[in-house]
Specification:
The complex is a heterodimer of chains A (358) and B (368). Chain A has 2 domains: 4-235, Rossmann fold (3-Layer(aba) Sandwich), CATH 3.40.50; 242-357, Nucleic acid-binding proteins (OB fold (Dihydrolipoamide Acetyltransferase, E2P)), CATH 2.40.50.140. Chain A is 25% helix and 35% strand. Chain A contains 10 helices and 20 strands. Chain A has helices at residues 42-50, 72-75, 92-97, 109-123, 138-151, 168-185, 196-202, 220-225, 230-235, 353-357; strands spanning 4-13, 16-26, 31-35, 57-62, 65-66, 77-81, 156-160, 188-193, 205-210, 213-218, 242-249, 252-255, 260-263, 273-279, 284-286, 292-301, 305-312, 315-322, 332-337, 343-346. The two termini of chain A are 34 Å apart. The mean pLDDT of chain A is 93. By secondary structure, chain B is an alpha+beta fold. Chain B has 2 domains: 4-225, Rossmann fold, CATH 3.40.50; 240-355, Nucleic acid-binding proteins (OB fold (Dihydrolipoamide Acetyltransferase, E2P), Beta Barrel). Helix content of chain B is 25%, strand content 35%. A 6-stranded mixed sheet of chain B has the order 6-7-8-3-9-10, with helices on both faces. In chain B, strands 13-12-11-14-20 form a 5-stranded antiparallel sheet. In chain B, strands 15-19-16-17-18 form a 5-stranded antiparallel sheet, with no helix packed on it. Classes of the chains: A alpha+beta (358), B alpha+beta (368). At the A-B interface, helix 6, helix 7, helix 8 and strand 16 of A face helix 5, helix 6, helix 7, strand 16 and strand 17 of B.
Chain lengths: 358, 368
Amino acid sequence: MARIRLNNINKQFGEHKALIDLSLDVADGEFFVLLGPTGAGKTTTLRLIAGLDKPTGGDIFINEENVAEWGPAERDTALVLQQYSLYPRLTVRENLSFPLKSRVRNMAQADIDKRIDYASKTLRIGHLLERKTDRLSGGEMQRVSIGRAIVREPRVFLMDEPLSALDAKLRESLRSELKDLQMRLGATFIFVTHDQVEAMTMGDRIGVLNHGRIVQIGTPQQIYSNPRDTFVASFVGSPAINLIPGKLAGGNAVVSPGAFELPVAGKSGAGEGAYTFGVRPEDVKVEQGAPVEGKVHDIENHGIEKILTLRVGDQLVRAAVPGRVAVTVEDAVRFGWNPDKVIFFDAKSGLNLAHKAA
Amino acid sequence: MAEIELRNVDKHFGALHVINDVNLTVADKEFVVFLGPSGCGKTTTLRAIAGLEDIDSGDILIDGKPVQNVHASERDIAFVFQNYALYPHLTVYENMAFPLRAVRESRDLVDKTVRSVAASLGIVNLLKRRPSQLSGGDMQRVAIGRALVRRPKAILLDEPIGSLDAKLREGMRVELKRLHLENGSTSIYVTHDQVEAMSLADRIVVMNEGILQQIGTPSEVYLHPANLFVAQFIGSPVMNIAPSTIREDGGKAQVVIDEQAFELPRELLGMLESKKAGNDLSLGIRPEGVLVSRTDQPGYRPAEAHIVQPFGGFDIVDLKVGNRTIRARTTAGFVGKAGDAVWTKLDPSHAHFFDNRSGASLDIRLGD
């Protein structure tokens, strides 16, 4: 088990700066998610921790020991990839025992059996042990890959988009399985994904990465309700946050003259002028007697709730309403928002004023 | 405009019964979505309507006329494929003009039609480009445009936005819905994505293993699934399903799951009796029907919170009740952390009962 600390890591590939001054401190037993779009530097970070690449600058510590000179084997991390990379000709049991049979480990067969027994019970793949891996479903293969990591009892689990290749239903069930597994093992997980639902639902903390830099680190709730900038705000949350350009005047958000005007709660340091107002769809209230009228532009139906896209002038505003609300496209409805939940972003830099002040 | 009817349609691929006695009427101007997992027969059914596949038996009727002996090109139905199928050496304009030129329409009419359809799809600025210069979303717009220029009786779409990324998919979905409202052509749309189906359809046709499972409006299939398959295919997170027994206790009904009892209104007992329900039942309840309290209240029973999954606007919380896990939906931050003691109750208006042998819903609807 291990604490992992990265201090001012830089990584360059030729001219391309893949990582810039990246610092992280992942606690022992923490489920830490690196979230970001393709090319943000997530996988590069994992490979540096695993020792598969060397940083151009900066230090990596495992349990406060600088591991610059350690090879991958000494670091003892387990990497689980999106591609399962199992041996197709071997059975599940042989695949699981493979990493333990190395001469360096010199493990007794009884110990190997014990670990396989534990891993297969944990992942509920006991009934598959004698099956060849090319006879498994995608979800089963990914369980076996994780099993191969578990039997090694590594210091840390590094997971690179392990659920991306699976269909939606399977992803949904494996998300909670993985979180449950991590809690039971009490292990340190560093989990890379571009899927904000995975990050939100599994992470103890999330590090949001963009263009090689950490933009924000926080718990899912912090990231969701107090995003550092418009990038984080729009990357996290589904349906996406409303980012509405407008002006602050007389305690109101004034949106593209003629579109609409709604009150906002005063923010320290927010003078009158141009802002991007951020409002989550669940904080937009559709009800009779609300101040603004909009036309229903689209309805996304999730059963339990509907996400309405409302049109006012040229401005589109998403609002979440209960599933039983009956509306059709082009209906006129009235809406307002919760003034306390409106986030102020600097119109130019996109920075959240609450962060700027802090 | 067109009404499309399927009567006892049956088809095998070798031993595989790919369409199993399907009956269905799609009304004129209706938007119907075929929804199901891969291999359920939805695409084969669509292709059979278009005339791209033969059927073994049954009838397909367009506006009341059987079309088995009508060639695909004469059925006046447009088909949009997932992989666009554009001519790479032709410009966007020429791709869209192709179906009209093939039937020797006048140059003026071709030009007018292509431009008006391109305008409604927002691709006028792309008319001179070749497909290789287009993004995935634009290619699909062109493919849809090419289908629309002939003003077909009906338009059939086979996972038309399945290969686009999530953001683009959402945008295209909105466009498709609005396009249908504008031109009103009868549409049949195939997808495995339930949110797409729920958002686009007037009615959803749920299929599995070649068998039609349920036809209904989005709210019907969500609120009153006809069987266990539909119940679990539609809705995310998935509905809680547990084998259970029902008993009477102190004037109330109790549903017992793994020896753990939940209270339900007494009227349930009479309803089960009148449906002649056996004892081999499952209870189904969506996460929003599992109520959670932080204090003990009448009708609630103790549980232990396990994994808490925050989604931002709400949380999904796994509750341990005996050896079972029941998934609940709560407001964000309502349950602190795994291990917390909470109390839980089933909202009767969300309870579904299924016969385990047939999988069919008993269609019991309890009030609050």
